[in-house]
Amino acid sequence: MTREEKSQVIEALTTKLTEQNIIYLADISGLNATDTSNLRRACFKANIKLAVVKNTLLAKAMNKSDKDFGELPTVLKGNTSILLSDTGNAPAKLIKEFRKKSNKPLLKGAYVEEAIYVGDDQLDTLVNIKSKEEVIGDIITILQSPAKNVISALQSGGNKLSGILKTLSEKE
């Protein structure tokens, strides 16, 4: 690979890293062709982009990026694949599901909305992260609850309230 090709790859990786807020690093080495194909197919269905990257080029792209990747460059040893997603827990769920049949892929680390996770032991934590849509749904539910209580109280007390107003108006 020429110097110019390397710089183009670094620029492309830097752009991807800058645009994405969900970045997972995994080791998929040791998977046979069928398993690799199944993993790629599962990633496609889950709207996750999977690419195998060179560690040195990814490290340079991380340094060029405006994001702080903390300890993530230290896990760039051996084979590394990058998983890019729009949903914080989607790659973790995919890895966990895929590992029911195989012991790979291994999670090296993840960058999720400015939080850094390093090590395969973080997989369960990442699976339990709520997606942006789930958090918004929870917030809407919480906000609707008091409004529903007020509306139901007004509706149930509507007859009492009108009765009280009628009685007060008759007394005057």
What does this structure look like?
With 172 residues, the protein is an alpha+beta fold. It has helices at residues 3-19, 33-45, 55-64, 90-98, 123-127, 132-171; strands at 22-27, 49-53, 80-85, 106-112, 115-118. Strand 4 and strand 5 (115-118) form a beta hairpin.
Structure class = alpha+beta
Tally of DSSP helical segments: 6
- The end-to-end distance, rounded to whole angstroms, is 95 Å
Helix content: 40-55%
> What's the overall geometry?
elongated
Q: What composes the largest sheet?
A: 5 strands, antiparallel
What amount of the residues lies in strands?
A: 15-25%
Give me some keywords for this one:
6 helices; five-stranded antiparallel sheet; single chain; 172 residues; alpha+beta; elongated
How would you briefly describe this protein structure?
The protein has 172 residues and is of the alpha+beta class. It contains 6 helices and 5 strands. β4 (106-112) and β5 form a beta hairpin.
List the topology elements.
Blueprint: H1 3-19, E1 22-27, H2 33-45, E2 49-53, H3 55-64, E3 80-85, H4 90-98, E4 106-112, E5 115-118, H5 123-127, H6 132-171
Antiparallel strand pairs: 1-3, 1-4, 2-3, 4-5
